[in-house]
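step=encode ok
step=design start
structure_in=
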C-alpha cells in the first residue's frame, strides 16, 4: 500500500470481486492522499464506494485532492456515500454511466465544488431530489453543467424547487417518463442552454424562462405531450437560437416571437399542430437561419409577409408537405441568402425566376422529394453558385442529363452537382 501513496490517477476495471473500496476489511481510499482521478468500470459486485459501517469515518481519510469520479457499467451500484458527497471540497466532475441500480442522486447533497454532473443509462433513477429541501439551488452550489440521459424511470429532477443558480447548461435526453424538471428557474440563474429531447411525457417547462437573462439557446425535440411554453409564451429578449422539433401537440409559438431582435436561428420542425399566420406576426428581423417544416398553417401565406425583409438571412430550409405551391417562391427571397433547402413540395413544378433573380450570393441549393418539379429559373444560377444536390425528383433528374437535358445549360457551370447521391459528372 505504501507504493500507492503518490498515485494521482486510479483506474479499476473488471474486478468482479470488488465490493466497497473502503470497509473494515479493505482500506484503499484513505491511503491515497494524492488521488485526483478515480475511474471505475465493469465491477459487477460494487454496491457502494464505501461500506455503511465506515461511512462516518470519511472525513478522516477521504482523498483530499480528488477532482473527478467516473463510474461505468457497475450493475449493482446503488448510491454514492452521502458524507463523501456533502463534505468533499475538491470534486468538480462526476460521471456515472450504465449503473442500472442507482436509485437517487441528491442535488442538495452535491459536493460543494462540483461543476459538472453527467448521468447516463441509470434505469432505476427516479429523481435527483434529496431529503434536505432547503439546500437545493442554494448559493453554495457551483454546479454549471447538468446532463441526464437514458434514464427511463426518471420522473422529475427537482419538482418542488429551483435548479442551482450557477447552472449554465441543462441537457435531458431519452427520459421517457420525465414529467417535470423543476418548479421554476431562479430569476438570477446563469443558464445559457436548455436542451431537452425524447422526453415524451414531459408536460410542462419550469416557470421563469423569460427571466433568464443569460439564456442563449433553447432546443426542445420529440416531446410529444408538451403543448406550450410557460409564462404566457414569453422568452428572454437575448435569446439567439430556438429549436422546436417533433412536438406533435405543441399548438402555439412563443408569444411576440417577432420581437426577439437577438434571435438569429429559428427552427420549427414537424410540429403539425402549430397554427400561426406569419403574414400577421412576421419573423424576427435579424434571423440568419430559418427552418420551417410541417406546420398546420404552412401555405402560400408563409411568403406573404415578405421573406425579402430578412436582410441578414443566410440559410433557409423549408418543407411544404401538403402545400399546393406550384411555383417557388411566390415572392422574392432575401439577397443575403447563401444556402437554400427545399423539401417535400409535392405539387411544385418550377422554381420562380422572379424569386431567384436577386440571389447573387446563393452558393448551395438542396432539393428533395419534389416529384413534379421540372425546371430551374429561366436565367439559371449566378456564376458564383457552387453546389447543387437533388434527391427524389425524377422529372427534374431526366431534364438534367449532362450535355443533353433541357435544363443542363442552366447548371453546366456549377462545380458540384449530385443527383440521388451521385455526381452528374461521373460516367454513367
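sequence_out=
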Amino acid at each position: 500500500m505504501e507504493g500507492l501513496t503518490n498515485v494521482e490517477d486510479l483506474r479499476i476495471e473488471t474486478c468482479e470481486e470488488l465490493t466497497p473500496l473502503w470497509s473494515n476489511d479493505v482500506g484503499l481510499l484513505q491511503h491515497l492522499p494524492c488521488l485526483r482521478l478515480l475511474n471505475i468500470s465493469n465491477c459487477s459486485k460494487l454496491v457502494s464506494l464505501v461500506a455503511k459501517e465506515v461511512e462516518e469515518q470519511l472525513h478522516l481519510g477521504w482523498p483530499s485532492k480528488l477532482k473527478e469520479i467516473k463510474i461505468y457499467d457497475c450493475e449493482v451500484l446503488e448510491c454514492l456515500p452521502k458524507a463523501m458527497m456533502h463534505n468533499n471540497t475538491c470534486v468538480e466532475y462526476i460521471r456515472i454511466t450504465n449503473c442500472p441500480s442507482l436509485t437517487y442522486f441528491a442535488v442538495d447533497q452535491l459536493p460543494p465544488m462540483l461543476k459538472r454532473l453527467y448521468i447516463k443509462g441509470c434505469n432505476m433513477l427516479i429523481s435527483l431530489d434529496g431529503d434536505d429541501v432547503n439546500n437545493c439551488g442554494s448559493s453554495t452550489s457551483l454546479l454549471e453543467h447538468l446532463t441526464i440521459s437514458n434514464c427511463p424511470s426518471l420522473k422529475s429532477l427537482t419538482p418542488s424547487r429551483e435548479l442551482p443558480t450557477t447552472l449554465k447548461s441543462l441537457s435531458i435526453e431519452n427520459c421517457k417518463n420525465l414529467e417535470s424538471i423543476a418548479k421554476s428557474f431562479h430569476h438570477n440563474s446563469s443558464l445559457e442552454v436548455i436542451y431537452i429531447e425524447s422526453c415524451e411525457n414531459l408536460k410542462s417547462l419550469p416557470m421563469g424562462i423569460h427571466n433568464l437573462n443569460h439564456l442563449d439557446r433553447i432546443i426542445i425535440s420529440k416531446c410529444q405531450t408538451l403543448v406550450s411554453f410557460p409564462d404566457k409564451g414569453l422568452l428572454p429578449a437575448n435569446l439567439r437560437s430556438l429549436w422546436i422539433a417533433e412536438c406533435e401537440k405543441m399548438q402555439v409559438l412563443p408569444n411576440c416571437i417577432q420581437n426577439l431582435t437577438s434571435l438569429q436561428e429559428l427552427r420549427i420542425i414537424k410540429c403539425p399542430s402549430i397554427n400561426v399566420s406569419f403574414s400577421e406576426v412576421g419573423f424576427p428581423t435579424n434571423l440568419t437561419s430559418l427552418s420551417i417544416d410541417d406546420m398546420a398553417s404552412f401555405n402560400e401565406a408563409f411568403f406573404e409577409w415578405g421573406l425579402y425583409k430578412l436582410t441578414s438571412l443566410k440559410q433557409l430550409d423549408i418543407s411544404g408537405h401538403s402545400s399546393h405551391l406550384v411555383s417557388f417562391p411566390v415572392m422574392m427571397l432575401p439577397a443575403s441568402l447563401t444556402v437554400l433547402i427545399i423539401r417535400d413540395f409535392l405539387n411544385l413544378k418550377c422554381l420562380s425566376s422572379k424569386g431567384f433573380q436577386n440571389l447573387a450570393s446563393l452558393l448551395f441549393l438542396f432539393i428533395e422529394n419534389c416529384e413534379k418539379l421540372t425546371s430551374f429559373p429561366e436565367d439559371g444560377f449566378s456564376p458564383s453558385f457552387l453546389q447543387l444536390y437533388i434527391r427524389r425528383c425524377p422529372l427534374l433528374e431526366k431534364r438534367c442529363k449532362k450535355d443533353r437535358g433541357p435544363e443542363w445549360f442552366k447548371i453546366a457551370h456549377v462545380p458540384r452537382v449530385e443527383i440521388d447521391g451521385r455526381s452528374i459528372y461521373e460516367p454513367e
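step=design ok
step=annotate ok -> Residues 278-428 form a domain with the Leucine-rich repeat, LRR (right-handed beta-alpha superhelix) fold (CATH 3.80.10).
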